[in-house]
Amino acid sequence: MYSLRKGLLVVLAICLFLPLSQAEDPVYRVDGLPENSHFTTGTSYELILTASNYSAISAVNITVTNGTLSETTEFTADVHQLVLSSSNDGWTFNWQAPEESFELGEGEAELSIIFEDQDGGIWSSYNSVLRPPEIDSHDEPGVPQWALSMAWTGASLTVILTVIGAIVLRRDRLT
Fold first, then answer.
1. Does 53 map to a domain?
2. Spatial contact of 59 and 26, defined as CB atoms under 8 Å apart
3. How far apart are CA 85 and CA 39, in angstroms?
4. Which residues of 19-97 form beta strands (DSSP E)?
5. DSSP state of 26
6. Structural domain contains residue 44
7. Does a structural domain hold residue 38?
């Protein structure tokens, strides 16, 4: 009985100290990304970064392979990297999606955010692939009109000939 009580006290002590060791893990949040990771061409997105321990972060290094980055809503062409200094309440920056449209499988933008710690190392990092708008199918049917007409004609003839054949064969049996 005494050993059971002692074991329960040890488990309770471990449970009390366990959350303290996990609380120091680097936790961050990125808000403002396009829904479903599909951007709209020419649209500006305001991205907001928050972190669990601002005092541990000395800078935030942001890069994008397609589009333009800016700290404000005013954009300069072809800015693919931003370095934001330390902050006590998070970071805000803007990303303008490319204005040109792309062929299927082209135009992805790779977004990379690196939180640098006070020692010059990496506190945490985030990578995402932002895809171009989904390609909508054209209003035209996938099958040409002449093929549809031919199919309906063939189906109609098959039904008519089947009915005629059934009548002829049934007539032979009745006589």
1. yes
2. no
3. 27
4. 28-31, 44-51, 57-64, 68-70, 81-85, 91-96
5. -
6. yes
7. yes
Give the pairing of strands 44-51 and 91-96: antiparallel
Please give the Cα distance from 71 to 67 (Å, whole number). Answer: 14
CATH number at residue 98: 2.60.40.2550
* Domains held by the chain: number: 1
Tokens of 82: 């931003």
Determine the residue type at 52: S
Question: Which helix or strand (DSSP H or E) is residue 115 part of?
Answer: strand 109-117
- 66 in a structural domain: yes
- Quick check: 5 and 96 in contact, CB under 8 A? no
If you search the block for the tokens 């060791």, which residue do you land on? 21
pTM of the predicted model as reported, rounded to 2 decimal places: 0.63
pLDDT of the chain, 175 residues: tens digit per residue: 677 777 766 766 676 666 554 446 788 999 998 888 888 888 899 999 999 888 889 999 999 998 899 998 888 888 889 999 988 889 999 999 888 766 666 778 899 999 998 888 899 999 998 888 876 666 556 778 888 899 999 999 999 999 998 888 877 665 5
